Amino acid sequence: MPVETIAWEGSHVRMIDQTLLPGAKVEIEIRTVPEMVEAIQSLRIRGAPALGIAGALGLVAALTPHRDDPPNTFRERFDEYAGALEVARPTAVNLKWAIDRMRQVADQHREMATQALWERLEQEALEILDEDREMCRKIGESAQQVILENAGILTHCNAGGLATSGYGTALACAYVAHEQGKNVRVFADETRPLLQGSRLTTWELMESGVDVTLICDDMTAATMAKGDVDMVIVGADRIAANGDTANKIGTYGVAILAKEHGIPFYVAAPRTTFDFDTPTGAGIPIEERASEEVTHGFGPTTAPAGVKVYSPAFDVTPARYVAGFFTDAGFLEPPYETSLNALRS
Ligand code: MRU
Fold it and tell me: Which of 237, 244, 315, 328 is catalytic?
């Protein structure tokens, strides 16, 4: 595993504060819902699968002091905490998926004594964490049939170990290829405004010894035109039933550029990122972020005070741009109306 992003410590959550990377690798402890909501909203923890894990573990951590409460009081706390966590960020469906799964467990065991129910919830959250690690591995393996020796892989944002409990999704494809001695070369888009590609993707690939080259977002077309990119692989925050894919802002532009250059554009994601209740990308809620993230970035002000800013955190790439999905159920190709059924449970 490239890095341990998030872990359970028996009563609280330990995780890397990703806002401080790559300058410092600092771990923080989370014990309450306000602490976890703040960590999620400020992107100390981020990436769709990691958000699901954080939601589930954060819920158990917050319930730890309530293990001796009467069942009714415990359930009231559960509902309050689950409700606050599931809306901390709106686009990645994994967060709501994980909280729904915890809620199902609480519903199924309404009669259980409080301590026993807390232990059952702890077990469920740890299963979510373990299953994610397994899914990452399978995603990486499903991509190997299309990743050739010396392949140049362009990725956007960070869909790596830092966004999951394992190998990542898009980066799992590169990690498994690297393990198999394929000598792949990764191009990491910087990913304005919060620089997940520059700060996180390059950091974890370098830690793992995978060849990586950083480019600014506006260098993507030139890098493709030069012939260095054989494929694009990105992660996803939510994939609608028809294959429309929400991912970090800028992904849609990368997909259009890939099409223009005849480069296949792939999406890597676990089944927990597919939302069959949302028919098309038009139904995916897109988070908007504070203007300061654009105007101030990581240093001095880069825009006039008071300028109007539009800052969507994600965009939707229509399914017609996606050459295939690397998933824990294998490599799924069009037509998605039928192939995505492999992921329905
Ligand atoms: O705003 P972020 O950093 O949470 O956005 C993350 C992404 O867009 C990732 O590509 C996506 O969540 C997939 S992570 C495996």
Answer: 237
